[in-house]
């Protein structure tokens, strides 16, 4: 097929190519011709602008926030996690992966939580995982009732003189204690704006002596579990 | 032009520009995806895949020679069709598509209910809306069907219970008239 000088045919084929009605072998042949014919490529681009504009006749619809979050997570566009005092030198890339994975896990677990008898309003959620990425705790926040709910999913047994302490880790500055966890499977802690502000990137759980870390500036023991703190729209 | 700059920004891997592009265009592109795939969860997947592709291919945008919105809607349209093909066709999705098409197309043909301003259309789309409005209804319908449903001549013919030859002629004439309307009658 030679299209040189056949203007009407070129226009028609370009239009049907863009519309999608040019099919099969004819379509492949046309693509072959486009390859060596810059003018034909331009004709196709013109038709794409003409007919393609039909896409705009559809009423717009606002997509849910989770679509952007998923895109951001897949492309790794979040602001890089900073290094905190006691994790300095840690693998930042790992933190980022963790954020992605735990947001997904959090979303799944959230469904389970919401199926409970009295579904609390959940504004924020974190799934805390151990070094092997196993889920250990689930933390949810109800901002209206100023309540933080901590659910132990699977944590290691503790020695009698030890306790777990929950920390909010801000993007900058020192971690802030959210409280020492008791022995129950589930507990509620007061949610204070000071403890969990918009600057909190992660929640972490450290191993401490009974009563919590003696150091007011942060954990004294090792970090056992951690997870990204994500707000749920 | 703003959209252009943001796409160039995305090509430089500027996350802020990309976010602005998303904020500005995602409602329109999501609307289009919803329109084609019908189910919100599928449309979300299409939108996600499309923006991943926009980020990955932003550097190729210039060579596409297209307007920014056209470039992006082409990606969304292709991703939508891909997803439907993978999902095994849209047989169960198109029950009320005909009614939807009719609504869109009718609004185009009514100059008083001109949707161009209400929808904040690009200049390309405004020009197209004006020219679509003067097409014969059957020509407008077959072009719309083919565009939004990835249909061949044969598919359109089956959908409308018309002979393939007739559908081919309608599409050909409709496109030729659009062309002459859009280029101000320079070509027949």
* Cα distance spanning the termini of chain B: 32 Å
Number of helices of chain A: 5
Task: Average the pLDDT over all residues of chain A and give the rounded result.
Answer: 78
**Largest sheet of chain A, described in full?**
8 strands, antiparallel
Count of strand segments of chain B: 0
Task: Detail the poorly predicted runs of chain B.
Answer: 91-96, 111-116
| Helix coverage percent of chain A | 25-40%
Average pLDDT figure of chain B: 82
Q: Which class of secondary structure composition applies to the elements of chain A? A: alpha+beta
How would a textbook summarize the main sheet of chain B?
Answer: none
The CATH superfamily name of the largest domain in chain B is Winged helix-like DNA-binding domain superfamily/Winged helix DNA-binding domain
**Helix count of chain B?**
10
CATH fold-level name of the largest domain in chain A: Immunoglobulin-like
| Largest sheet strand order of chain A | 5-4-7-8-1-2-3-6
**The CATH topology of the largest domain in chain B, please?**
Arc Repressor Mutant, subunit A
* Overall body shape of chain B: globular
Can you put this structure into words, describing what you see?
The complex is a heterodimer of chains A (233) and B (188). With 233 residues, chain A is of the alpha+beta class. Chain A has helices spanning 7-19, 24-35, 38-52, 65-75, 92-114; strands at 124-129, 135-142, 147-152, 162-170, 176-181, 186-190, 200-209, 223-231. Chain A folds into two domains: 7-57, no CATH class; 65-231, Sandwich (Immunoglobulin-like), CATH 2.60.40. Chain A has five helices and eight strands. An eight-stranded antiparallel sheet of chain A has the order 5-4-7-8-1-2-3-6, with helices on one face. In chain A, helix 1 crosses helix 3 (38-52). The N and C termini of chain A lie far apart (56 Å). By secondary structure, chain B is mostly helical. Chain B is built from ten helices and no strands. Chain B has helices at 2-11, 15-37, 40-57, 68-86, 97-109, 115-118, 123-133, 137-149, 153-160, 164-182. Chain B is globular, with a radius of gyration of 17 Å. The interface between A and B is large, with 38 and 61 residues.
